[in-house]
Structure formats: C-alpha cells, structure tokens
Amino acid sequence: MRRFYIPVVVLAFGLFAPTLRAGLMIENTGMSGGVGVTQFLYDIVFSTAAGQEQINPGDFVTAYDVGTPGPGATFVSATAGPNWTASTSLTGMNGPQTLPNDDPSLINVTFTYTGATPITTSGNFAGFSITSTQGGFVIDDYTSQRTDASGPDGGTKIGEVGRVAVPAIPEPASLALVALGAAALLRRRA
After folding, report:
1. In a domain, 35, yes or no
2. Is residue 59 situated within a structural domain?
3. What H or E segment, with its residue span, contains residue 8?
4. For residues 138 and 1, which has the higher predicted lDDT (pLDDT)?
5. Domain carrying residue 62
C-alpha cells in the first residue's frame, strides 16, 4: 500500500508547484583587472509573471560586505547602470523580512532604481560594478526589494535574500591553499 501512496503524493505536489519564480537578483558576470584594482561586473536580473510584480522607484538590491572603509581601504568605488544609483553604507539596506549576514565593519553597496516609471516586464540590466583593491572574492549575501503589482497585496514590498560573489581579502587558510598549489606547480615543472 505504501509503494502506491508515495508516488501519488509526489505527483500531486508536482501538479501544484509553481512554474515561474519571480525575483530581483544580482548576478556576477565577470571581473576585469587594472593596475592595483579589480572591477567586479554585475547584472541586475528581474523575473516576473506578466503583471504580478514590478520594480518601482526606490526598490533596490544590496550586496553585503564588499570591502573595508577608511585608511588602507579595499573598497574603491561602485557604479550603477542607467536609471539606477549606487550608494554605500556599513549596515543595511535590507529587503523586507530578510535577515542577511552583515558585518558592520565592512561596506555594503546598494543599487537603487531611480527611473521615472515602474519596470513591469522581466529583464537583465547591465552596467553595474564594484571596484576593489582585492582580486579575491567570497560568496556573500544580497537582499532586494521589489513591489507586488496586483491583487489585494498590490503595492506591498517583497524582499528576497540570495548569494553573490563579492570582492574580499582572502582568508589565511585560502592563501595557504593557493601557496601550496603554487609550490606543487613549481615543483612539478622542475
């Protein structure tokens, strides 16, 4: 009897599972190096079912713990694509009902939509970057805020939390692994 029941439950769940997931995310698209700096390149990605959600002026994406401030800073600058602005802070801006890991001694970068009209269709927005004196990276949190566009919850802000590659000083353990790998390569060549 159990062998028949389990597949029925799995089948029923599959019939009611959502087929399209909405979201406002940041994705790393590459890196480019200069003299003493590395530029981390990003796209902001918006996915929505027609008319369900939108990006309103003031909605945002925040990447956490991208570098150190002050003397000897590892954070250099951040740039945003058209109709967006970049700002920095040591804490927040958090998407609604999200609880990202956030080290208050490290800079967060927030990209805020400043366009005149809401974005109502899915799309990728290019031209975002974070420049750092560090060429290393870690996977850290991001949060975002978008707006419910229809139904009884229309106008409600929606939060999301995810993970993205951000500039970082490699941890000592990581540096040790890199050094061991380099030593093995040099030994192999000799």
Report:
1. yes
2. yes
3. helix 2-16
4. 138
5. 15-189
Region of residue 56 (left: phi > 0; alpha: psi -120 to 50; beta: else): beta
| CATH code of residue 55 | 2.60.40
pLDDT tens sequence across 124-160:
999 999 999 988 899 999 999 999 998 888 889 999 9
Q: Which residues, in sequence order, are CB contacts of 55 under 8 Å at separation 6+?
A: 24, 46, 113, 118, 119, 146, 147
Q: Is residue 44 part of a domain?
A: yes
How many whole angstroms separate alpha carbon 42 and alpha carbon 159? 20
Residue 96, both tokens: 């609604």
Question: CA–CA distance from 164 to each of 7, 32, 44, 114 (Å)?
Answer: 36, 17, 11, 23
Q: What is the pLDDT of residues 26-52, one digit of tens each?
A: 999 999 987 789 999 999 999 998 779
Q: Residue 16 has what pLDDT?
A: 35
Tokens of 133: 């004196």
SS3 assignment for 74-87? CEEEEECCCCEEEE
Report if pTM > 0.90: no
Residue 2 lies inside a defined structural domain of this protein: no
In a 13 Å sphere around the CA of 99, the CA atoms on its Cβ side amount to: 0
